[in-house]
Design a protein that fits this description.
three-stranded antiparallel sheet, about 500 residues, 18-stranded antiparallel β-barrel
């Protein structure tokens, strides 16, 4: 907690005085106050009422991350990414709003091991992996478009999100992963007694194709079909290296939002998703299926006047469960599925309490604090394996938007996080685990049970051109993560762009 002195910059800036007033459009779209009740914005009907003003932004970004040693081997030791993106939020008239986003980024991720797929955090533990890994090139395309309108007391909205990823290596093992991810949302809300009572539904369709090839004369190395906590599907590990994943799911949301911005707010979401791993080289044989269910809720109270304050709680429960298919002998290249066993379970529970206080006038400043508890437990059925941790965490942050002259605005943010491990479990049968996989698990567990201190700061300068809506901005953010296991993470982001 001693590192929380990093907030001094933001807190000192909040005492700055100026004769000019901060740009009200920038305040509405950049202020941390918008972090309160962001879950409601998932409902496109409610998102049409998020902002009163129009705002568009075009930016170029360079993002850098480096870890002394990978906190998670499958996610690597860092990355260098470059991107261009455009976002807009526009009122067509008094009742209709549209918004959209387009993004492209490219770059490299370094030091990845035991992972030959994209979207590791989504699909693990059912991944394809090898001991070599290496630097991976990445490309991503994202598109988003939304529409909302009002019919008397009814608010209606729809939204589409699309993502396409391409990750590959140009040296052995030459992995190539292609992802398509489509999400469709529809929502409605009814205005009654000063509140917006909303509901929304979401449908997701996901697919990923994976292939690992070797070009060198020395030959190939084993590709493990991982099934959880160091266990493998031994029969299909080795040379089965052409896979695809298909799946998706649905989510349902309920919302309560005050029309005036002042009052109680609440959100509840329930989702079910599943992802099947299929061996393309074995006549599309299903190997495993991962199920993911999540319940999430937010409840709080906010007041936005000359003095702002908010208090709210967040709670979520995520259950991940994995089935493995027991496959019979091949008959004319067809593999009969004899049985299906549930072998993997993962339960994640998270609860937190947050508070925010601030002021909106010539300047806009806010400070906030979050405290919470997280428990993550993984189990594999046979042979019995278990790994997990529980921790307390706290976050203190501050933001200040202040005018510099009549057309320039300075935004400063700083935050400090501390994560304290309370308990951890590591039970892996050494004699029944490949030595390389045992070393991987031991490394990852060392950082799972560690304590973390995270420090971040951000500065942004916006300058509006004379007699024009067009503005220029420059944003620089940087931070570090320190662990009790002597691991470090350094990251920085530079963004240049236009607002209009």
């Amino acid at each position: 907690m001693k590192h929380f002195n990093a907030l001094t910059l933001a807190l000192l800036l909040s005492t700055t005085t100026s004769a000019a007033e901060v740009d009200s459009t920038l305040v509405e779209h950049l202020s941390a106050w918008q972090q309160v009740n962001t879950e409601a914005q998932i409902n496109p009907a409610l998102n049409g009422k998020t902002f009163r003003t129009d705002f568009s932004q075009l930016s170029l970004q360079a993002d850098f991350q480096r870890q002394k040693a990978a906190f998670t081997l499958q996610e690597g030791t860092g990355h260098t990414l470059y991107s261009i993106d455009a976002t807009t939020y526009l009122h067509l008239n008094n009742v209709t709003t549209v918004w959209g986003k387009a993004l492209y980024h490219t770059g490299t991720a370094r030091g990845i091991r035991f992972n030959s797929i994209a979207d590791y955090s989504l699909l693990e533990p059912y991944i394809l992996a090898d001991t070599d890994g290496g630097k991976t090139k990445r490309e991503r395309y994202e598109f988003q478009g939304g529409y909302a309108t009002q019919l008397n007391r009814w608010l209606l909205g729809a939204e589409m999100l699309f993502r396409a990823d391409h990750e590959y290596r140009t040296f052995d093992p030459r992995m190539r992963a292609i992802v398509t991810d489509l999400t469709l949302r529809g929502g409605a809300a009814y205005q009654w007694r000063g509140y917006r009572w909303g509901a929304a539904a979401e449908l997701n369709i996901y697919k990923q194709t994976d292939d690992v090839t070797f070009m060198r004369e020395e030959g190939v190395i084993a590709e493990y079909q991982l099934t959880g906590l160091g266990a493998t599907y031994a029969r299909f590990s080795g040379e089965v290296s052409r896979l695809y994943y298909k799946g998706g799911g649905a989510r349902f949301l309920l919302n309560l939002q005050p029309e005036s911005g002042n009052g109680f707010f609440a959100n509840l979401s329930m989702s079910e998703h599943s992802y099947e791993r299929i061996a393309a080289s074995l006549n599309s044989l299903p190997l495993t299926k991962l199920y993911r269910d999540q319940w999430k809720t937010t409840f709080g109270y906010r007041q936005h006047k000359n003095t702002d304050w908010a208090l709210w709680i967040d709670a979520s429960l995520t259950r991940r469960m994995g089935d493995e298919n027991i496959v019979g002998s091949s008959l004319s290249n067809n593999y009969p599925i004899l049985a299906r066993l549930t072998m993997y379970r993962n339960t994640i529970s998270d609860a937190s309490l947050s508070a925010m206080y601030g002021h909106s006038a010539k300047q806009d400043w806010h400070v906030g604090i979050t405290t919470g508890y997280l428990d993550n437990n993984e189990k594999y059925r046979d042979p019995k394996r278990e790994m997990g941790f529980s921790r307390l965490y706290a976050r203190l942050w501050g933001q200040n938007l202040t005018p510099i002259g009549r057309r320039t605005t300075l935004s400063a943010k700083a935050s400090a996080d501390y994560l304290k491990n309370l308990d951890s479990t590591f039970q892996i049968p050494v004699t029944e685990t490949e030595p390389a996989l045992m070393a991987m698990l031991t490394h990852n567990y060392k950082y799972l049970r560690a304590d973390y201190t995270c420090l971040d700061a951000q500065m942004r300068i916006d300058h509006r051109l004379k007699q024009s809506r067009l503005g220029l901005f420059c944003q620089l953010s940087a931070g570090t993560i320190l662990t009790s296991e002597s691991g470090t993470d350094t990251h920085a982001n530079l963004t240049l762009g236009l607002t209009f």
